[in-house]
Every structure is written in structure tokens, then in C-alpha cells.
């Protein structure tokens, strides 16, 4: 019993001693902030590095991997170079924004920019032998065009042709057995359908984004400066498109090309919700024309139109809000010859409904001069049909072909045709490049080699033979004024007297 009491006494002493020790430690310890509250980790939050795969299978039609894998190798990076543009005194052209502050006098003191300027966009391979579609604005006025493939191969591209009215251009590289994308039918695309945009935004190669078709037949007035001939019937999508995507592919989930990405709706310069693509129905026709004729065959119905809306319907007492209203007809137009009149309402072209001007433009743009189309229209609330034979801009049904000009010798100098690349770069429709000045009768005129003659007096020069014709005709007069441009963009004028 005594031993038991002794053990309990020792245990009590130990406990008391420990308490005094701890208490003494706390009394001697400096005052500290209260310990932080421990919060349990959220069991629903995990690091992204944690490897967890489920057995969930993505439903058919929502998995984009097959389309992305088939399309990406056929979308290329288009890189462009532009030589510094000089003014007539040899200095750089001043930015208009700077000119309003410093004045034109300051321009002569500017130093030329070192090295070429560079641009970037995308392109789509449409044929295994190296034909590539892109936007006209991607390569417009470029001195050099380079194409970088998805597999990092690099080629210098030749410009085959352009069509500013649809913002399309065709390039060619010397290569075979290239991956390519087949055309899809943009007419069958439906609003709400999934699509992929593939391109090179911000120089990020082979970028794929997804979205849906938001609208069809959209007109955004981006091509309005093309002498009123711009064709806008864009596919609108919410797939993310940014600078550098221009010229890239818009494809469906089968990997079919249904459009060429061209523009974004933005006040910042970057994507904010919508982008626009040229539909494949227009792309295929334009590219076929460039391959076959070197120039696009524009067929015209010859009508001035206005979309039917509530205001027009009230004003003209119309019984419908569908179709496009004919405000007027061009003289000797295909529409007039087909019997259409002012006040008629066009509702269909070849069975395809048209309710907007862009839809009408798109339907007619698929055809060439000489083709016949069936026009359905309303007159006095009665449905009628007419067959119209489409015409070109000159009022005929002829196919317009690019004339193959040849170099000629005249007065000891060589006059050569202007290349397609030079015409695109300088904004020309033709001309004659002169060389061999020193050994010719032009040596005293002040003209330098490389000068491109575009006009002689009021006569437009489109080919070397024009120079010979117009200068020969001027020999019986007091001379002629030769107008033109140098390859660096300098414009110049030279008076030429009678040839000796």
C-alpha cells in the first residue's frame, strides 16, 4: 500500500513539474501573434499535373481531332517582304499622321528605313503540285512572298493572279506531292454547325480554333472601295481568328474547305467575337478563273437593287418583305433583255432564294459571261420567271482573257511586259518596262532603266506594243508626254520630242 502511494506521489510530482516547466516557458517566451487558422484543402481542387483519365467518350460530331489532323499539314504560313517606298526625291514617304504635325517639308529629311518591312498571313494548299489560296490583302504589293509549310519546309512563291473584288489570290510553289484540302460545299453549311479555323495568328504556326457558323451571306462593307464591284457574302463564325489567320482555312468537321478566313469584326485589332470567311462557292470559281484565264470572269445581271424592308414595302406598297427590289437597270443589260423592269422583286436565282443584295451577288458571281440563269421575280404580286444571259463589264458575253504581251525592240531600247508581281505591287493594270536606255534614242530623255511606262499623253499603256504605236503616232506632232513609275514607287513624267 505504501509502495502504491509512493508511485502516485511521484506521478503527481512529475505532472506538476511538467506544468511548471511549460508554464515557465510560456511566461519567458516573447509575445507572438496567434497561430494561423488551418483551412482544410478543397477536395474538389486539384493540380493540373495530376494524371486522371476517365472512360468518357466524346459523342460523334463533337470531336475535332480527325479534322484538325487532316487539315493542319495543308495550311501554310505566308511571309511577305516589302521594300521601303521612296518619294520622288528619294526619301521615305511620310506617314500622313506625322505629316499633319511636321509638314511636308520635314519629309525630305527622313532617312530611308533599313531593311525590308515584313508581313505575315496564312494560305491553303488546294493542289498537290503547289497551288495555294490566300487573301489578296495578305500579299498585296509584296516584293517577295515566302511560304513555310507545316513541316518547316520553305519555298519562294510565285503570284499567279489576284482578285481584289473577292480578296482572293493564288500562289504557286515549285513542289509536288504536297498535302492539300479538298473543297466542301458552302451552300450546305448551316447556321449553328461546328467549324474549325486553321492558320498562323501572331506567327503561331498551325493554330486550330473551333466555333460555329453564326450567319451566312454577311456583308460588312470591307471591299467597298473596289469601284463598287466588291462581292461580300461572308460566312460569319465565332471561331477565334486573329491577325495572321487571314488566308487560312475554315473547314467543317469532315476537314472540307468551306471558306477562306479574311476579316474580323473588331475595334481593337484582335478577335472580340466574330470573324468572316469567303465561302468556298466563291473561292472555287475565282481560283478556277485565275488558273484558266489568269483573270476573273465577272458576270453581271445589270441591275441596281435595294433590299426589301418595312420602309420600302410601305413606300412602294409591297405585299412582301422578301427578295431584292430593282431600282433601275443598266442600258442593254442582261436583265433588261430578259424582260425585267424597275419595280420587280427578285426572289430566286436558279432556285436559290435571295433576300439580300449580298446573296444576289454571290449567286450571280458563280457564273461567267455568256452563262444563262433562271431569275424568279414578283411583278404586281404575281410570280414570274425569266432566263437572263449574263454579260461582262463591257456589255458583251465574251470571255476576257489576259493578253500575253511580248518584249519588243523600239528605237534601240527593249520594252518588256510588266510581270504580275510588279502589277500587284505597284497597283498597275499593265505597262511596258524599258531597258537598254544608254544605247537607244531615249538616252537624252532622262529616263532610267527599269522605268515602267503607263501612259503616253492620254493613252493608257498596257503592253510594250502600245508604246511603239503611240510614239509613232506622236512623231507628226510636237512630241509626247510619257508617264510612268519606277519599281520603288517613284512616279515620273518625261517629255519626248520627235525621234531622230
UniProtKB/TrEMBL annotation:
UniProt keyword Repeat present: yes
MF annotations from Gene Ontology = serine-type endopeptidase activity
Any idea which positions bind substrate?
81, 137, 167, 244-246
Biological-process GO terms, alphabetical: proteolysis
Protein name (Swiss-Prot/TrEMBL): Do/DeqQ family serine protease
What NCBIfam families is this protein classified in?
Answer: degP_htrA_DO
Where are the catalytic residues? 137, 167, 246
Q: Which SMART domains match?
A: PDZ
Matches recorded under PROSITE patterns = PDZ
- InterPro entries attached to this UniProt entry: Chloro_Bact_Ser_Proteases, PDZ, PDZ_sf, Pept_S1C_Do, Peptidase_S1_PA, Peptidase_S1C
SUPFAM superfamilies on file: PDZ domain-like (SSF50156), Trypsin-like serine proteases (SSF50494)
Swiss-Prot/TrEMBL keywords: Hydrolase, Protease, Repeat, Serine protease, Signal
- Start and end residues of each PDZ domain: 290-381
